[in-house]
Amino acid sequence: MVADRAIRAAEDAADPVRIAAAQWNLGHVLLSHNDPGAVEEAKEVALLAAEQLRQAPATAETKAVEGALELVAVVSDARRRHWWEARRRLEERAAPLARQVGEGNVQWTVFGPTNVAMHAMSIEMLAGEASEGLRVADQVDTGQLPSRERRFTFGLELARCYDLRREDAATLVHLLDLEDIAPEDLARSPLARKMILDLQKRVRPTFRRQVTALAERLHLV
């Protein structure tokens, strides 16, 4: 409802950048659903908005929001297991725009080279390519990102890459870092909850106390 009203307000203002940013928000709302139809619709919304935005005069702002919309399409492809399409769009569409505009936070999209690299890692994590995901993650510095949400998501996906490799100590370290960043988000994340509960079942006695304490703090046990 909020995303829809934002689109209407942007249209009333006749501001192409804000219209596109509102569509970007709607895309993320659709991506938050598990329904494949909603995830596919997110891509459709994003690409239509990007096409409309390209009709406006090209500026750093329009390019940044266009790049952010391309990332919505990338996530949609990856969520639907279209790995090569996601990688191709990231490399051919999002990455060139990121190089043009540099780091920034136009319309709170946090679009720039760092965010593009984070999405590259995300694709590999979703594809189960944990080693490649970790290789990409080693090249990412999130220290200057203005978005705590993006830092949290990156850390969660990094933990998942270690979890896929059954590197329990590294998984635990990153989960504890996430607790410092956003404990409420960690407690609400289905992926984090699953990783913590799985760790409890298989972790070595050396780390069991820390894992159990984390689970208790998050009210998982």
Determine the CATH topology of the largest domain.
Serine Threonine Protein Phosphatase 5, Tetratricopeptide repeat
Strand content: under 5%
Number of separate helices = 12
Shape descriptor: elongated
The helix/strand order is: HHHHHHHHHHHH
Q: Which consecutive residue ranges, at least 5 long each, have pLDDT under 50? A: none
Question: What is the level 1 CATH name of the largest domain?
Answer: Mainly Alpha
Please report the distance between the alpha carbons of the first and last residues: 35 Å
Query: Mind describing the biggest β-sheet?
Result: none
Care to give the gist of this entry?
The chain has 221 residues and is mostly helical.
Keywords:
221 residues, 12 helices, single chain, Transcriptional regulator, Serine Threonine Protein Phosphatase 5, Tetratricopeptide repeat, 2 domains, mainly alpha
